[in-house]
Target: Ran guanine nucleotide release factor
Amino acid sequence: MPEDPYAERPLFGGALTMTLPLRFQDLSNVRQVPDHQEAFVDPNRDESLIIELLDLKHDVADEASAVWFLHDLAREQDAEGAMVLEQSGVLQAPGLCFRGIPAVVTTAVGQMAISKGRQGREAQNIVRVYLANLRLKEVGTDVLITAYEPIVINPLSESVSTVGAGTPVPAEQAGCMPLSEVFKLAVSSFKVTDWSLFQA
Model:
């Protein structure tokens, strides 16, 4: 396994934590991030990981929730060619218990063509998206953990300046943990240290 040092990161003022490789920088140190999100990026690989707190979608079934959010994300980002590559069944998260009720976790992996920032469709990159939905039903919250991995960088994309056009160098060759493993580490290490965050 490539050497990719990692550490526990505080989220939302330390009320939540997760473990991530150190190469992922806190985006809020660079630009404004919405209050309900935390975002981390590795600009050298154009990889990113976003944690989002949303009101629980009561009308979405547990087993379908990760796929539902993946499609929702594709709609929001005006993505083209969105497809689901795999999805998990419903997993319990015994480490995420509130009043004895464990969180329900589902994951999905998709692929879609997305433009960066305000760029148009002609600059779309093909991106693999890893998404986990942690349903904290007792506090009425859907936690989304979403990781973005570029598969093909469009020559017109602003990502070209850092990553170059075409297929990025595989993580192992670059001496770092593949994003699929970063995502698993983030989801499995996610902890709530202060449940009062959800009592707003």
